[in-house]
Amino acid sequence: MRHMMSFFKMKSALVIVLSMVVIGLCVPVSAQSSFKQTIDTLVAELYGKGNISAVDSVFAPSFVRHPGETDLTAFKISVLSLRAAMPDLMVSTEVSLEEGNLVATRLRMKGTFTGEFVTPNALPIAPNNQPIEFVVNVVYRFDEAGLIAEEWDAFDNLAFLGQLGVLPASNTPIPAPMLYPDVVDIGMSAQNRTAVEQYVAAINQGNLDFMNQAFKDDLSAHNPFGVLDRTGLAGDLGRLRGALPNLTLTVEQIVTEGNWTAIYYTLNGTFSGNFVNADGSAIPPTGLTLNLPTITLFRFDQQGLIAEAFEMYDSLSFLTQLGLITVTAPILTPSP
């Protein structure tokens, strides 16, 4: 959560008023598994072509989208709204992994904001004719009939609304495309899954030294606030845990394939301690609680160490939940 301290400093001054809202002998894993194919085809038809009819044959009638707990009708509306606002919308799948009835993927979407953005229960957003680019981490669950029954999204509204011109533009660059997205079988999937589970347990126990065992020295950890190395990530987690002493990560879904493992989890805690910034300044506690859905995809190297982490969550929700910024009008939370 790089640059988090600069956002924390906004508490006393910032009130947002919104009118809406691998090398060697690695063997590539086959990409022909049916659920991954279903998702790849669906994403291309929906977001790339605006073909809403593609939904009816692959989604269960009882489909639920998290967070927000919305249904299939709301899902269709969100796709149509996004396509209407950005008629030239293009989507690419950066990485996709499958295990059992779960698929985890990272999507990159690009378009030009040339049409009015209209969503339910919010005032329309006038176009600014600017290019828009964002990423979404998603986990899908298929039911016994092979239909998509649930979807969990991790998407950053702070960056998105900043590009739309609703909020001040963020200084954080748009996440760069993955350099090593291939899913390869290095025969260590079970070990990698265990490493991620141990990492979560270590954070919950406050044992940040575990990172030195699980992460490469030259780790790149990507999140909505930027990119961190291993030392930076440990520092951020340490400061967050100091501010939220009861911080816990609760894993709800985990997907492992080849050299990748993805987890969907929630960050929970109470802002009851001072948040000490890297420069030594401190933000006093607000006493508010955090419940933050997050999806992170971990890429492992051939030695079983985490080489990259691609974390996504709604940083606007993070800041508002902890009382670090104030929203005085209904906020739009589009989940592409």
Strand content: 25-35%
Structural class: alpha+beta
Domain tally: 2
Given as residue ranges, the uncertain stretches (5+ residues, pLDDT < 50) are 2-33, 329-336
The percent of residues in helical segments reads: 25-40%
Q: How are the strands ordered across the major sheet?
A: 10-9-16-15-12-11
Span between termini: 22 Å
Q: Could you say what the CATH architecture of the largest domain is?
A: Roll
Query: What number is the mean pLDDT?
Result: 87
Instruction: State the order of secondary-structure elements, H for helix, E for strand.
Output: HEEHEHEEEEHEHHEEHEEEEEEHE
Largest sheet: 6 strands, mixed
Rg calculated over all Cα atoms: 20 Å
Plain-language structure description:
There is one protein chain. With 336 residues, the protein is an alpha+beta fold. It folds into 2 domains: 4-9 and 181-327, Nuclear Transport Factor 2, Chain: A (Roll); 28-164, Nuclear Transport Factor 2, Chain: A, CATH 3.10.450. The protein contains 8 helices and 17 strands. The protein has helices spanning 4-8, 34-49, 72-85, 157-164, 189-205, 211-214, 230-243, 315-321, and strands spanning 15-16, 27-28, 59-66, 90-99, 102-112, 131-142, 148-155, 184-185, 215-223, 226-228, 248-257, 260-270, 275-276, 282-283, 289-300, 306-312, 326-327. The strands form 5 sheets. The protein has a 6-stranded mixed sheet. Strands 3-7-6-5-4 form a 5-stranded mixed sheet. Strands 1-17 form a two-stranded parallel ribbon. The radius of gyration is 20 Å and the shape is globular. The two termini are 22 Å apart.
